Amino acid sequence: MLQWKKNRKLLLAITGGISAYKTPELVRALTRDGFELEIVLTEEAESFVSPMVLSTLAGKRVWKQADYLSDGYGWRIPHIALAEWPDAVLVIPASAESVSRASRGEAGTLIGGILLATRSPVLFFPAMNVNMYEHPATLDNIKALRSLGYHIVEPDTGYLACGYEGKGRLPETDAILQEVWRTICPDRDLEGKRVLVTAGPTWEFLDPVRFLSNPSSGKMGYQMARTAWYRKASVTLVHGPVEKRCTHGIVTVPVVSAIEMYHEVIRRTEENDLIVKAAAVGDFRSSEVAPQKIKRNEDSLLTLSLVQNPDIALEVGKMKREDQVLVGFAAESTDLMENAMKKLARKNMDYIILNDIAAGEGSGFQSDDNRVTVISRSGHMLSLSGTKEEVAYRIWDVILSSKERPGIFE
Ligand code: PMT
User: Fold this and answer.
1) Across 51-121, where does the E strand assignment appear?
2) With a 6 A CB cut-off, is 168 part of the ligand 1 pocket?
3) CA-atom Rg of the chain in angstroms
4) Of all protein residues, whose CA lies closest to atom 26 belonging to ligand 1?
5) CA-proximal residue: ligand 1, atom 35 (nearest)
6) For the whole model, what pTM was predicted?
7) Does residue 89 line the site of ligand 1, with CB under 6 A?
């Protein structure tokens, strides 16, 4: 786990919306991920979720409206103590009423007092009936919250508890978690930058059911995309067929073949500041795809005729402007350094990330961990190892602290 993700403290301010019934699941997920929590409920919220359930799951008491301005805690005034404690405050769900009150800085409730007193980042998760959400008054209040520096996480669209379909659903727990990580991430050095990442394998069909591919799971590319998003980049992820993951906040472009990936990458190269090629792109495809499933026959030999796919990184390298950064990955098993350096030069890359795919467990394809060497255009090298999330984050550290290309990130 990234160092800055450890031992973090969150205050959950739960207000009176029907989706408050989902907060016990959120509390379980957050405590499982190592967060220490304080939980505050509005009076209305107590009608939607049991304080007893929440305190059992959080492993500590929850705070209620009755505790506001209470003299039961001596000099430790709850709304001040609770305001200064957390790394971040989540108003979740944020009812229309709580949005309205906070937009005017009202302090008549414990949560209102905390919001005025805290200097920690505050995330609002508005969730309500679609008509209430889209009412001009609510939208004006949300705009006012943004102008006060609060971070608003838009609700999802879909089936609502009140029987309507529309925008107003509390986001899924994974999405909430990603928003929390992005808020508390200490680095914002990709803010305003557009990042394009490729990940996963490609499938090159031989007939309707068989294809050539490789063991790429997409984990490394996904972590390059996710950690760039933590660092406030706008991220687009072009990925081959991989398992479903939470891609909240990231624009995803699913593709199947190398040709499709080529077109989706080339058409986006111009508009992006950094391009990271972590995908294991199939180098060959069948010269023709059989219209029907190829049948076994008496011969034991089946000859395939393959043609080369375009080298996407090579084409991107040709298009690359001086103010863009191209990062490739090299999956090598022999003459690692020599092969990686050749690719870096031939494809006009600024960095190539060498991973030894023959190194077994803990490196390369499929694994949750990786061991890489970051090689820059001028030949500087740095070895990194750890989870693919840690490796990805450190790769960004290297690229963004690089003195070799001054001015790109000023
Ligand atoms: O997905 P995981 O299971 O997490 O595994 C991660 C990984 C091992 C796939 C990843 O770390 C990695 O090494 N990705 C690059 C794999 C690869 O295709 O390496 P290569 O040496 O064949 O290609 C070199 C570079 O050219 C890569 O940036 C690749 O994306 C790019 N390339 C290659 C062929 C091609 N036709 N077009 C390309 O753009």
Assistant:
1) 88-94
2) no
3) 25
4) 313
5) 311
6) 0.94
7) no
